[in-house]
Each structure stands twice: as structure tokens, then as C-alpha cells.
Amino acid sequence: MSILDRVAVKRVEKLLKEFDKNLSVKALEKSARTAEEAASSLGCEIGAIVKSLLFKTENNFVLCLVSGDKKVSLNKVKKTLKIKDASMASADEVKSITGFTIGGVSPIGHQTKIKIFIDNSLNRYENLFAAAGHPNCVFKITYNNLKEITNGSIKDIVE
Asked: For the domain that residue 133 is a member of, what is the CATH number?
């Protein structure tokens, strides 16, 4: 893990500890770059994995936190934001806006303040797992704590 990656993981861990001293980052031996890899490494259902996906909108960005077994509906995102255009952010945009590389984007600890939408289907799981700033690092959190720590808005944003 590079120095920059370690800094990103420490940024996430600091916020977790400030929120709840019992929350922590777990380093995995295998990659959790995709929801499938994360579920396999953790031995959990793919739906319990939180995907953090950044979208570029007409004048800003929105981070969508969705269940690992769901796909974001661009039409629902556009309708929710009352805009005509939205697309996936590029790898460079993801890095500059969140401070994380794709595969390790955390729901917290971003470089800039981002509007966050949380897919309501995540509430199916008692415990969720989200990236912690690096493709091999995750943290476990409840749905309610995810809502609280991200200050995200609950939305129906999946297909």
C-alpha cells in the first residue's frame, strides 16, 4: 500500500473513530475492488456491500451509495435532482473529488463536500460493508449509522 493510500485509509479510520470508537477499518488479504470480490472476501451476501459510485451532474457531483446487487438508475438520479444530464464520473474526477481511487471509494472522508444519496434497498441488511479508502480495506457499519455518518439522503435510485 502506497503512502497516499495509507493516508486515505487513516482519514476514513479517523472519521469512523470520531463517530463511534467501536468502528474500525479491516484490511483484507484479497481485493475488495468489486462488490463480488468484497462479498467473497468477507463471506457475506453481495447485497450487504455498499458500492460508492460518483456521478457527474450538470453542475456538480453526487455520490450514490447502493447495494452490491443493484444498479444505479441514471434516470432516477436525474429525476431526483431535477436535471437533464448525468453520467458516471471519470477515474480522474473520482480521485480529485473524493480523494480515493476507484475500487476503494469510501462513503466518508472525501476531499470535497459531496451530495450523497443512499439507496433505500440497503436497509435489507443489519450490517453493511463499505470501502475504506483502499481496495483491500473495508469497514462494517449498520444502515442507520451509515445514514448518520454520511448525512446522506435516502432515495430510490436503483433499477
From this structure: 3.90.960.10
